[in-house]
Design brief:
By secondary structure, this protein is mainly alpha-helical. It has helices spanning about 15-85, 95-105, 115-125, 135-170, 205-245, and strands at about 175-185, 190-195. It is built from five helices and two strands, in the order H-H-H-H-E-E-H.
């Protein structure tokens, strides 16, 4: 009967298991860190792309604001001249054609459209979190609030314009005024006034009342609309500087 000797494998030391665990832990941890770094770089890149797009929107807004300020200034001066002629009731008959021309040219809406493509994407997608610079996020919020203020002011302006038009229905006969060609430089239409034009009334109180409506329009443009546009332009310029500095844009 044969007797077999049993061989025993030497027991591994606890340090062996420790190093196996450590190597496994390091492998998992490094994989996690690599994935986290990759996601961070992707988000950083996406945030930068949003900011590049926003700078482009802000540059477009700046051009539109400058045009709106120039246009609003011309409207204000035209309305001021029309108001002066309205208050000069004794000369209304002699100034009839001028009154028609000024009313047809300058009694119109002053508005501005802002480029909101990037803003809509940031809001709807919840990607404002990608903008990690607090000063930039605050500046963006202030810029958006400025747009809201200007939009509300535009609604107020349109309401006053409708009130002005209603007052003008008792003074101006629209059949005497015809719109001409559009001037893309001045953003005004030329107007053609019938030489036979006459006001529907030369009542002094009616003309003065219209002048008072004009005064409200002029005040809104000079005291609120143009100053708000200038403030918005300054906010846009500041935001552009912050973005370019943070994201190293030229």
């Amino acid at each position: 009967m044969e007797v077999h000797a049993h061989t025993h494998t030497a027991r591994k030391k606890w340090t062996h298991y420790f190093w196996e665990f450590l190597m496994l832990f390091l492998a998992v941890f490094c994989g996690f860190m690599a994935e986290n770094f990759r996601e961070h770089q992707i988000e950083k890149s996406r945030g930068k792309q949003y900011m590049i797009s926003m700078v482009e929107d802000l540059a477009t807004d700046t051009l539109n604001i400058n045009r709106a300020i120039a246009f609003a200034s011309q409207i204000s001066m035209g309305l001021d001249s029309l108001q002066e002629n309205m208050y000069n009731t004794d000369s209304a008959s002699a100034n009839t054609l001028t009154l028609y021309r000024q009313n047809a040219i300058y009694v119109r809406l002053v508005a501005i459209d802002f480029s909101d493509q990037t803003a809509i994407q940031l809001r709807n997608s919840g990607n404002m979190r990608l903008i990690r610079n607090l000063e930039i996020t605050n500046a963006i919020s202030w810029y958006w609030k400025g747009i809201s203020t200007i939009d509300n002011m535009g609604d107020n302006y349109e309401k006053r314009l409708n009130d002005l038009a209603a007052a003008g229905y008792n003074i101006f006969n629209r059949k005497y005024a015809r719109r001409g060609n559009w001037d893309s430089t001045s953003y005004f239409y030329s107007v053609i006034i019938d030489p036979a034009a006459r006001l529907m009334t030369y009542d002094k109180n009616t003309l003065i009342n219209y002048g008072n409506h004009l005064d409200r329009m002029i005040g809104l443009i000079n005291s609120f609309f143009i100053p708000r546009l200038n403030t918005q332009k300054e906010r846009g310029a500041k935001l552009i500087r912050l973005i370019k500095k943070e994201y190293h844009l030229k």
